[in-house]
């Protein structure tokens, strides 16, 4: 993920380079996968899921277009509060992963469906400590669980997908308990929606939203549920 501070300096060069060198398809293709055989039990009230799968701009963008998600916030998980800032996390030495906290209505979307979207269109779960052009442990594939039930569902689903060999390589996604989630800086929130023409977004992330629309039509919403809009209504 390119740092916002240097985006304006690199945008022209990147756009020109992409125009001549960009392949005909997105960096990461979606994979059609089965729904989880095990899912969380029906529940009432807003639930929380936290996942990491590369740059949080695209992860947030996909779930902001997912029906049943009431808020999706970019942030950091896996490290301490003292190191939960973009510049420090970008060093790859904090333990943090760029993550997204997903608040969702379990009566409209299940935890298992969120994981199905996560493994199918959000990222490539077979890439270790990287995602597409982004390299480092801060871009790792990880599921931060908020309950024992979530842990069981996530681990069972990974085993199910590996057994079915829906991917060419084993899934490397780590599953662990969420200790804390720290929201990212304001300029990272709603980034995909606010900067659709930014070369990184156009090439790496907008295709993920299109794949959501194609593969999960029943779960797709055209108008994204934005962080800024959520704040304005609270």
**Average pLDDT metric:** 89
What number of domains? 1
Residue fraction in strands: 15-25%
The CATH architecture name reads: 2-Layer Sandwich
InterPro entries: Met_Sox_Rdtase_MsrA_dom, Met_Sox_Rdtase_MsrA_sf
Enzyme class: oxidoreductase
Catalytic activity: [thioredoxin]-disulfide + L-methionine + H2O = L-methionine (S)-S-oxide + [thioredoxin]-dithiol; L-methionyl-[protein] + [thioredoxin]-disulfide + H2O = L-methionyl-(S)-S-oxide-[protein] + [thioredoxin]-dithiol
EC number: 1.8.4.11
Reconstruct the topology from this structure:
Blueprint lengths: L3 H18 L25 E7 L2 H9 L4 E9 L8 H4 L7 E8 L6 H12 L7 E2 L2 E2 L5 E5 L2 H17 L9 E4 L3 E3 L7 H4 L4 H17 L11 H7 L1
Parallel strand pairs: 6-7
Antiparallel strand pairs: 1-3, 1-6, 2-3, 2-8, 4-5
Helix pairs in contact: 2-4, 2-7
How would you portray this structure in words?
The protein has 234 residues and is an alpha+beta fold. The chain has one domain (47-227): Peptide methionine sulphoxide reductase MsrA (Peptide Methionine Sulfoxide Reductase, Chain A). 38% of the residues lie in helices and 17% in strands. It has helices at 4-21, 56-64, 86-89, 111-122, 148-164, 191-194, 199-215, 227-233, and strands at 47-53, 69-77, 97-104, 130-131, 134-135, 141-145, 174-177, 181-183. It has a 6-stranded mixed beta sheet with strand order 7-6-1-3-2-8. The chain has a two-stranded antiparallel ribbon with strand order 4-5. β4 and β5 form a beta hairpin. It is globular and about 40 Å long.
